[in-house]
């Protein structure tokens, strides 16, 4: 314990920082919880999109056309267009490319489309 105290004093006197083991342990624990919670938040980011709208976004990101999306989900192309209009409004984008970039950059919880 005496050697540790001397080392701490020497370190501080030489202009460096000294952080005790307990502080480092607390910091690491805090950072782990922060990383975990931010990962959960990223997965939960939906920006007000419904589950169906998230499916539509996933299909757009996968490169599907409106017609292909309609066939895949067994809905009309007009319904796809309606969903896209709602999605564009909610996310503040105006093109499919902007939508895809937004989805990837914001880590939207996309679903794989076969």
Q: What's a concise summary of this model?
A:
With 114 residues, the protein is mainly alpha-helical. It is built from six helices and no strands.
User: Helicity range of the residues?
Assistant: over 70%
Q: Mean of the pLDDT scores?
A: 86
Report the principal-axis shape.
Answer: rod-shaped
Separation, N- and C-terminal Cα atoms: 62 Å
Q: What's the order of the H and E elements?
A: HHHHHH
> Strand-residue fraction?
under 5%
Can you tell me about this structure?
With 114 residues, the protein is an all-alpha fold. It folds into two domains: 2-44; 51-105, Orthogonal Bundle (Arc Repressor Mutant, subunit A). Helix content is 70%, strand content 0%. It contains six helices and no strands. It is rod-shaped, with a radius of gyration of 25 Å. The chain starts with a helix and ends in a 9-residue tail after the last helix. The mean pLDDT is 86.
List its traits.
114 residues; single chain; Arc Repressor Mutant, subunit A
What does the secondary structure layout of this molecule look like, with pairings?
Elements: H1 2-13, H2 21-44, H3 51-61, H4 66-73, H5 77-91, H6 96-105
Helix pairs in contact: 3-5, 3-6, 4-5
């Amino acid at each position: 314990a005496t050697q540790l105290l001397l080392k701490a004093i020497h370190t501080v006197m030489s202009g460096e920082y000294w952080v005790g083991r307990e502080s480092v342990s607390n910091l690491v624990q805090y950072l782990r919880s922060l990383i975990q919670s931010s990962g959960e938040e990223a997965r939960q980011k939906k920006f007000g999109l419904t589950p169906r709208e998230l499916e539509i976004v996933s299909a757009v990101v996968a490169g599907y056309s409106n017609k292909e999306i309609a066939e895949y989900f067994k809905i009309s192309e007009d319904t796809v267009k309606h969903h896209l209009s709602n999605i564009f409004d909610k996310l503040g984008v105006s093109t499919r490319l902007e939508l895809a970039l937004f989805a990837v950059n914001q880590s939207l919880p996309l679903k794989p489309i076969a």
